[in-house]
Amino acid sequence: MLICVPEVLSKADVGDFRRIMDGCAWEDGRLTAGAQSALVKSNEQLPPDSEVARKLGNRIVSALTANPRFLSAAIPLHIFPPLFNRYVASDGHHFGVHVDNAVRGDRLTGLRIRTDLSVTLFLSEPDEYDGGELVIEDLYGSHEIKLPAGHLVLYPASSLHLVTPVTRGVRVASFFWLQSIIRDAQARSLIFDLDTAIQALVERLGRDDPETVKLSGIYHNLIRHWAEM
Ligand code: NI
Fold this sequence. Notes:
Number of domains: 2
Shape: globular
Helix content: 25-40%
Distance between the termini: 22 Å
Largest sheet: 9 strands, antiparallel
Bound molecules: nickel (II) ion
Number of helices: 6
CATH class of the largest domain: Mainly Beta
CATH superfamily of the largest domain: q2cbj1_9rhob like domain
Radius of gyration: 18 Å
Structural class: alpha+beta
Strand content: 25-35%
CATH topology of the largest domain: Jelly Rolls
Oligomer: single chain
């Protein structure tokens, strides 16, 4: 399931991120790629262990942990420190079809996670560049994603995906992974749908409606049933 989460960062925050990132030294994106993806990866990234990447990454994680839609969809256990990349048209940057590594380790914190979900947070507006679509394959076919700056997409890390060549301008994004408390994608999807329906009922009937209270109990009991921590 692909889930878009709008307005994770404000336009002011995006502008601030971009100003800071413009002043940074970028390195070859293949330095963090796995063996297969290194063959098809052509982009640049901020050095993952740099102070600036960590500071910006922490701001993203803070925004995520205050975002109800993100929390409901991802039910995160561990969020990997966000990374930052850019695709520059004049360098012909793109990222061919690949699957993300199943396990990621962070050198600085020692954190190791199973990558259940991949996240791309867009930091360029769609009219700043041509191409650069994130294409994600799932059971229902292939989906092209290009979101406004500050919005993100969550997708199963197990899916084949690619970034089409950027043919004009620069595409800047943050990307990272997370391990969910709910490992099974189907179960996580059911819990998200249930939560979305409960929130709509709460709007209509109030938080103290007896059936809404029962459904909220079922929601928590399903998490309890499926949680792996
Ligand atoms: Ni990837």
